Amino acid sequence: MNDTLCLRHHPRQQGFTLVELILVLVLLGVLTAIVLPRFTQTGFAAYGYTEELASAIRFAQQSAVAANQPITLVFTTGGYRICRGSLCPSDGDFLINPGSGQPWDGSRSGRGQIPAGVTLSPAANLTFDGLGVPSQGLLLQIDDYSLRIEAGTGHVH
């Protein structure tokens, strides 16, 4: 028999090595510890509400400048309301949300109401004058997130 024609067939091993398995388990553990808490329902709702509130504050300031009249935001534990004028009674002249066409009266989701399980503090009022200058600086806390409204400029960050 010719040696060149005789090929030995070595079975190929299939599977993962122990090092590969340990590396995958460590990576999954790190991802679970870091990423999973950020996608919990409450954390996601708090982040979304923070972004909604920042947009609403900026829109209120722009509306005050555009109309050259005061716009007032009232922050409560249940959410926020936005009214025309320097007072914001519960049945006031509410600013209309341009996205939904509904008044920002704090009555429902997308209208200022805070999602279940999320907290907003402190309860306060903020009025933008006709030049867009806020009545005060304010730091709002929404669970682990915060919004700062600068006193002189009304800048939201």
Automatic annotation (TrEMBL):
GO CC terms of this entry: plasma membrane; type II protein secretion system complex
A Gene Ontology BP annotation from the UniProt entry: protein secretion by the type II secretion system
The entry's keywords: Cell inner membrane, Cell membrane, Membrane, Methylation, Transmembrane, Transmembrane helix
Subcellular localization, as worded in the UniProt entry: Cell inner membrane
Residue ranges of every copy of the General secretion pathway GspH domain listed in the record: 50-138
Tagged with keyword Transmembrane: yes
Domain of life: Bacteria
Residue stretches spanning the membrane: 15-36
Membrane topology: Single-pass membrane protein
Keyword Membrane set for record: yes
Family that this chain belongs to: Belongs to the GSP H family.
NCBIfam families per the UniProt record, alphabetical: IV_pilin_GFxxxE (TIGR02532)
Protein name: Type II secretion system protein H
